[in-house]
Amino acid sequence: MKILIVSQYYYPEQFQINEIAPELVRRGHEVTVLCGVPNYPKGEIFDGYDNPEKMEEVLDGVKVIRCKQVPRGHNPIQLVRNYISFVRESKKMVKKLPSDFDVVLGYQLSPITSMIAANEYKKMHGTPVVYYVLDLWPVSAEGMLKSKKNPLYLPIANLSKSIYGVADKLIVTSKPFINYLNRVNKVPVAKMRYLPQHAGSEMINANLIAEDNGVADFMYAGNLGKGQRVDVIIEAAKLLGKRPDYKIHLVGDGRMRADLENMVKGYGLEDNVIFYGNQKREDMPKFYKMADVLLITLRGNNEVGDTMPGKLQMYMTTGKTIMGAINGAANEVIREAHCGTCVEAGNYKGLSELMIFYIEHPHDYDQCGDNSRKYFLRNFTLEKYMDGLEKELLNMK
Asked: Global pTM?
């Protein structure tokens, strides 16, 4: 098949589409990715990508075409400009593409407007469009708008419904998405399929057992944004206090990092909570190795909290105990896999109690890592994911 992928984000930005597109090529398909100039999550264009020669290149057999866009910056106005500029420039670019793609795959993160170029291509050539839905709209916009009463919410809700309505098929990453998309955006259930995200298996056989240093090492790896609610981890640490028998390692970056660092300083927890910033993927095993427990948190005040973050699958490959303050699909998987334990989203008191119990009874969790890896192999490998995705795409031909 000849496949056009529309995604506002692509390499060197760290999203799983970076693995999906090359794997489609390895399976014999011709793949083009239409994306933006990389600037996520720092909000500034990556070094070297202001070079015009980088606007079109071939990476691992994938033809990558980049659209100019305003960087995300560090404030809501700049972020809105980023969203609008990608819509404008991707619509221009899609009109220059060949007309013979067999299917358009929209890798739908936020914002939903990033899918307009995919719909534009369908409008021009009648090509079927499939979305892989990772972020729900309009509910994902609520965090920025603060409330459904915001006068911008209704236009965004109507736009979301319209954009979803153009797609011929929606593949969702979490089962609760199906109910929401049907109820709020009137997407027929028959048009939707469930396919959870994968994770790379490069660490599945690695020895990542942490050294016994007399300290319980907890780690969070990923985006430090509002939706991730990493503040819950800091509040849990506040309840633990300045005790010498634990550390919390925060690996990643995002819009909330400065606020989180200020929280840590305000609570006097600099010796207990350590920030490492963004790390290269190839360097992550050494960070996972120093962890005893991996932490996962997410907002829980709306349907976004029902999702299963891709980091959960990655966590499961490391053979570590997983603890979280999270609802929905992720909560269910952690319990079903017997790979750790969790409390509801936002419950920092409950999370602190889980952490204290681990500090005092670490061997009660000795089987969690092995259970985690076994569950991953049964459910979340790249091969299983690609088999499912390829089947859905071929059915559109």
From this structure: 0.81
